[in-house]
Amino acid sequence: MTNWLPDVFSSPKPVVGMLHLSALPGDPGYDSNAGIAAIVDRAKRELDALQSGGVDGVLISNEFSLPYLTDTERITSVTMARVIGELSSDLSVPYGVNVLWDARASIDLAVATDAAFVREIFTGVYASDFGLWNTNVGEVSRHRHRIGAGGVKLFFNIVPESAAYLADRDLSSIARSTVFATLPDALCVSGLTAGAPTDTQSVSIVKQAAGDVPVFVNTGVKAENVADQLSVADGAIVGTFFKKDGKFENSADQSRVEELMSAARSYRAEAAA
Fold first, then answer.
1. Is residue 5 assigned to a domain?
2. What is the pLDDT of residues 152-182, one digit of tens each?
3. Which of 31, 88, 208, 269 is 20 to 30 A from 113 (CA-CA)?
4. In-domain check, residue 160
5. Does the residue 123 lie in any domain?
């Protein structure tokens, strides 16, 4: 696999900021009185904070659709498409989408909104907080082909949050077989939950096993550890640190985005020197 990252991102070792949409119609937390307009308004503010703060890309997800479904309702991706359509004129960085936790719906949404990439759980069987969680990467890959989504890059999260792999396999073996058998465009390594630290050793293990496939740190990246994480990983996806006071439920805080991105740029400049 050739290095495709420069074709999508303008900076080496890109930092992708999470744009967490508010609870959507059908979700337990949806505010039907405020309606879709409130979701769009918050999303626009979040996008402005992330882009003004200097992120290299944005990943739009229904993070507040808790508790998540593994086979989502149609209203979820339909509403996300509506919101992304309203954001489209303001998007100035590469963006991806993630319909938690539904691989097919995520790819469908990417095609509908011209997203460059998707992050999802594509492989494995898990015991999770959301029940027994199965996948079918062969079926999803064929669906991707049928709908003309070959250009959409797939980020495989091989250490999903709030779940444990049912097979007794080590991380290196999982990474090697995932790369060989399922053809991911990138691998993501996570901690236990959103914002939870990702062990640098785990990232190193996956990186060594992944060959030419890029590896992203998926959770727990902060201004104080971004240099260490990027010294191993090919990129990072950041959500919780960018929030006000570093709390998952809060809105994005531009000053925190600027703080982390300044540290990331400093690391990249030193690495290139």
1. no
2. 999 999 977 788 889 888 999 999 999 999 9
3. 31
4. yes
5. yes
